[in-house]
Amino acid sequence: MKTFEHPLDIQTFMDQLSYQFKDIDLLYSALTHRSFDNENLKSNGHNERMEFLGDAVVGLIVTEYLFNTYTQYDEGELSSLRAQLICKETLAKISRKLDIGKYILLGKGEINSGGQNRDSLLSDTFEAVIAAIFIDGGIDMVREVILQHFVELLNQTFNQKPLKEYKNLLQEYTQFHFQSSPNYVPVSAIGPDHAKWYEVEVRINDDVHGRGRGPSKKEAEKNAAKEACEILNIIN
Question: What amino acid positions are annotated as catalytic residues?
Fold first, then answer.
């Protein structure tokens, strides 16, 4: 790689990232957009291949964390959570927290079109930076960095509370406060067999505390539990 000095104080960015690169050129490449590479002969190359690797690394670490932490979730629920956490919007949010847009090297056209604040560009650059950490420091270091920036966001994903399924929250609350368990009672099932819409009540000691609807009984029960958690002030 050709040595290239970043025009800004890259040490500040590494401090925000909580990782110190041994090979700084990896970080320069991760922060370089194709448009800048096309306009500058001294560039270290752009970050698109690193995005590819970073996407896989983020997916692996987040999947591992969810699998080990939320043992009460089934495969479908874990997949849904993972999709919310590693989507473009979430990665862009983390990028903004790290001020990545300030450090991305862009061509003039991308700068003029506001590329530094575009979700897709921010999320791609974050993935490239993660790939650079993986190459530079290995899986344990990149796991530490990813979880540092993801766990807080993970806890904010559901009502600013630690991520826990609403039915579990309600179950724990009712056993403690009512000495009984919630009962989910089907109310209706509307529509043809291939597209039914279910409605369920959640009852505690025969009193209705919430209703929920959904394309499956399971989804309707979750929504009923969510409403009950809100009514009982278990969640805000």
Answer: 55, 127
